[in-house]
Structure of PLP-dependent transferase:
Amino acid sequence: MKPHHSGPTLNVLGSTFLSFSAYRTKTVRVKFTKVSVFQRGYLTPGASLRVTHGAGGGAVPGSKSVKSPTLRAASIIKPCGTYIFLPSFYPHPPSSCSLSTSCPLFIVTRRDYTMLNARKTTRITPHVTSPTAVPPSRAIQASTLPARSLAPKSSTQFPRNFHKLTIEQVGAEKHYYLTEDGRKILDVSGGAAVSCFGPGPNDRIANAVFEAYKIYGGYSCSYSFTNPSTQDFIDALVQSAGGYMEAALLYGSGSDAVEAAAKIILQYHAENNQLQRKVFIAREQSYHGTTLAALSWGSYWSRRKPFEDVLMTVPRVTACNPYRGKKAGETDQAYVARLRAELEQTFLDVGPEKIAGFVCEPVVGAALGCMPAIPGYLQAVRELCDKYNVPLVFDEIMCGWGRSGTLHAWQDYGVVPDIQLLGKGLVGGYEVLSAMLIGKKLGAMDAIRRGSGFFNHGHTIQGMPKTCAGALETMRMVEEQLPNIREMGKRLMEGLQARLRAHPNVGDIRGKGLFIGIEFVQDNLSKTAFNPDDRVSVSLHEMGLTSPHDIHVYPGTGSANPEGREGDHIILAPPFDVDGAEVDLIVSLVGNLIEHFFKEFKPNKQ
Ligand SMILES: Cc1ncc(COP(=O)(O)O)c(C=O)c1O
């Protein structure tokens, strides 16, 4: 393959560990800074490494081409993923080098290698004998994983969690993540219920985004301009709500949209001279995001803990959780009546004239593991909100946009919110976008139009044209798949029930559409939760990422008690375009994983 040098330029600092999967079949140009010594080189046969010494390069002038056999015939060729340990025979660091290969590459500098070597659980073993073998040292051993001893791989990337190992991804293919040790991991949870069609590239979205990019470029200043791409998506989004919504605003993360909801409601009350309406009411066992207002609304104890003192005071009512909340022999109607009475009492205790709004997830995601509202519950909430003039917010960031079987989760319940939030899969995981829909009934737009005239909550980047083009195409694709989501969701639920219902550690399997949660218990008669120190859901998720399981399930905690301190569940949120055979495979893989995990599981001494 003829190398060409138009590939992207990447800076490699001394300790950087890079995946080159995005540059398959291309030559990439790599610039090195502050790298003093390199390890031996391994290259795919036929690939070439061209090292150029330029300014700051050191003793070897000019450039030097090295064919892979010279470096050492690669004994580590795998279907994807090759490590390049840069040659140690260069006494001084090259300023740049060009790599030409048809495989995804890893560059490992010596410092990384040393670091990886030092970490027994993640050490790279270069000599993998079989192309499909998983280097055992690379695989996470869930049962032996040291809970608190992992260091970040790269010293420059601040890890999300110093105690949790992440896996090096080198690519994605349809419904699979491709890892650097040559494995394909089936994503049965859409990551964190984000990817709608799997993590792999998608031509329809890529084309839509690229066409818009060719016209509008990347950034459009939404303070000064609008454009047909953004407008078309917003129109389609608002129309998709069947005439109940009047407008939408676009943001980035889900938390951004939640923050905007809190602000627009507060401003709406201010425009109506109701400045005393400042108290939001939310529910136990809910998660609404990580920014300060969003964190205040949510009750996710472990995420709130360090920030508790600076959060808003948010009175809470019990979540609608029939698995744990319903009394023995209680009917759905009686349970709903009880929850309704509690909410009304809370409104009265706070004083309806002080309430800014009430927020809930129609199907609770991360905090309760896909718990759908039972029939009649959301109607009861709507009635009370109407009675006391309390704006009702539905956070559909996780459960909406097709995930629960209808485009908007509320459509199946026949209950319309005043403010609706969407995020996660709004562009199928291909771009970052969230949205806030404003209900017609509330009249927030009119209040602000006639009042101050502007919503005092702008972001620099909102609703970029290329992102919206991707969102519009995603919306079409999701709508096409709605019947499949319902049909495959039913098949998945039935399959999981048949396989796992009798398992003593499976307490409940629930959900809606392709959004299914499995809650784990010490025994399914007493429903006793596991000790949080056992890290059941997280360890099970970690085991899933090892061979032979190779599946990604999304773990959650806190589903067992109102403060969210105990309880373990996993979320399954498979791609919307799964077929029957793949659903059956998911049932089998998830069943095997759960059975394997609990066979090996040894609880902490309590
Ligand atoms: C229901 C719900 N709301 C809000 C958020 C926050 O979204 P993000 O993480 O994109 O900020 C999440 C994230 O999991 C969520 O599940």
In short: Residues 309 and 542 are 33 Å apart (CA to CA). The first helix runs from residue 68 to 71. The two ends are 61 Å apart (CA to CA).
